[in-house]
Design brief:
With 167 residues, the chain is of the alpha+beta class. The chain has a single domain, classed as Nucleotidyltransferase, domain 5 (2-Layer Sandwich). The chain contains 6 helices and 4 strands. Strands 3-2-1-4 form a 4-stranded mixed beta sheet, with helices on both faces. Helix 3 runs parallel beside helix 6. The longest helix is centred in the middle third of the chain and has 17 residues. The protein is elongated and about 65 Å long. The N and C termini lie far apart (57 Å).
Length: 167
């Protein structure tokens, strides 16, 4: 390992490849709330975060595992569950008074039509204004889960109506 007066050790999260500080600073300078979407192997987590100098504050959040309490019987890691999780988080954000936000992908590689953009579409459909292109979100049939099966699409419609009603 190098040493000497000119050697500078990077921040730990930078060394681990977990945080891009240049992008994070640009997002924080915007002054908007951030929609943070994270994927795990079995879950999708959507959080609406506000900047605070002492540490970020989570204004609203939802996890795909919460959908089982609303009647979701499918997997919690697919595109329809990501959309429903984003819709649930968006409804909670609107109730907390959030009108607009920007998407925070973190270190994830954006893929057109992926789960991250399905969650983004859910937050947008809940009424939170987020600047994004129309061509990056999955099409309506994929959001409903028609590519998986008819029972997933009908289950999707039932859970979506429960979320929109506020149950």
């Amino acid at each position: 390992m190098a040493n000497g007066p000119r050697y500078h050790v990077q921040f730990r999260r930078r060394r681990e490849g977990r945080t891009d500080y240049r992008t994070r600073l640009a997002l924080l300078r915007s002054g908007e709330h951030r929609v943070v979407v994270r994927k795990t192997l079995r879950n999708v987590i959507v959080q609406i975060v506000a900047f605070d100098p002492t540490g970020d504050k989570v204004v609203a959040a939802a996890e795909a595992r919460e959908l089982t309490g609303l009647g979701w019987t499918g997997y919690t890691r697919n595109t329809p569950s990501a959309y429903l999780t984003g819709l649930l988080a968006g409804k909670r954000a609107k109730a907390a008074g959030v009108e607009g936000a920007v998407l925070d992908l973190g270190r994830q590689v954006p893929m057109k039509g992926g789960r991250v953009f399905a969650a983004l579409q859910g937050v947008t459909d809940a009424g939170v204004e987020i600047p994004a292109g129309e061509d990056i979100v999955p099409d309506e049939e994929r959001l409903r889960g028609a590519h998986i099966g008819d029972e997933v699409a009908s289950n999707f419609d039932a859970v979506k109506s429960k979320i929109m009603e506020g149950k």
